[in-house]
Amino acid sequence: MNKQKIAFITGITGQDGSYLTELLLKKNYIVHGLVRRNSILYNYERMEYTADFPHNKNLIMHYGDMTDSISITNILADVKPNEIYNLAAQSHVKVSFETPLYTAQTSGIGVLNLLEAVRALKLNPKIYQASTSELYSGDTKEAPQNELTPFKPKSPYGAAKLYGYEIARIYRESYGMFIANGILFNHESERRGESFVTRKITLGIRDIIRGKEQHITLGNIDAHRDWGYAPEYTEAMWRILQQDKPDDFVIATGETHSIKEFLMEACKIAGLDWKKILKVNDKYKRPNEVDYLCGDACKAKKILNWTPEIKFRELVKIMVQAELKNNGK
């Protein structure tokens, strides 16, 4: 009988972490998660989707922080995982302009802390590093973007993630470690954080229908993004670590739509007139914007046999319907 695989997930209480946890538990993994102590009360709600949480014997939580190398080292020494999924980050682009140092420490130096802990402990896990389409400049001349498209981030978040991407590559090449970068384009779900634009739109629609609000206030509605469904993207993460050799992969749908289109489609589903509920406020605009992202996931399709099934309109429908069924506040 094969021994149970052990996975360690940083950022386990986030959108991707919760879906990945469900996936791995279904595959009979023992899952260890890293939780920041000050995030527990706010974020544990996503873990409630996981069967038998918090009583599942195959799901173990650890307190620690990506900026605290000692806590990371101590946890890894105890867990000795077969697979590591580094999903932890300050991942909100607009917030990264307001907290650039913290973003650099968590999304950049945190990656180094993790990799150096693995190396110092002489462990040999397969490591997945969560990268992002925010590495790209968004120049339409370089679209669709693939693994060979030059990087030119436009935010502190993108810059921090670029450091994480490159330090992962350097450790892979220098020390022979199995480290793979997943360059994931935007992926959404009903579990998306409320400060992200897609969830802000669906929450706004819910509140308007309930009579709590009259408008949805947004910033740049002309930015184009390649939006996919988060559970499918976490499946791609797992497939990346099942390969014999580490490599980097773009994960995307190959379609791009503007924030305005997302709002229009969501309002259509909800039976609202988007023109009557939209307000634009410059305070929600970023100091520097990536205007156009569209991913080319041909490599993932060929090597990982991964193809997204949920495309734009179905994604919007899933999110809007989930919000309208939500009996929360």
**Percent helix range:** 40-55%
The 3D shape can be described as globular
Number of domains: 2
Query: Would you list the SSEs in sequence order as H and E?
Result: EHEHEHEHHEHEEHEEEHEEHHEHH
Helix count, DSSP H or I runs of 4 or more residues: 12
The first-level CATH class of the largest domain is given as Alpha Beta
Low-pLDDT windows of residues: none
Total number of beta strands: 13
Radius of gyration: 19 Å
**What's the architecture of the largest domain, going by CATH?**
3-Layer(aba) Sandwich
Largest sheet: 7 strands, parallel
Q: Report the span from N to C terminus.
A: 48 Å
The CATH superfamily of the largest domain is identified as NAD(P)-binding Rossmann-like Domain
Q: Give the helix/strand class.
A: alpha/beta
Query: How much of the sequence is in beta strands?
Result: 15-25%
Average pLDDT over all residues? 92
Outline:
This protein is α/β, with parallel strands linked by helices.
Give a topology summary.
Elements: E1 6-10, H1 15-26, E2 30-35, H2 40-43, E3 59-63, H3 69-79, E4 83-86, H4 93-98, H5 100-120, E5 126-132, H6 156-175, E6 178-184, E7 187-188, H7 197-209, E8 216-218, E9 224-225, E10 228-229, H8 230-241, E11 249-251, E12 257-258, H9 259-270, H10 274-277, E13 278-280, H11 298-303, H12 312-325
Parallel strand pairs: 1-2, 1-4, 2-3, 4-5, 5-6, 6-11, 7-10, 8-13
Antiparallel strand pairs: 9-12
Helix pairs in contact: 1-8, 3-5, 5-6, 7-9, 7-12, 9-12
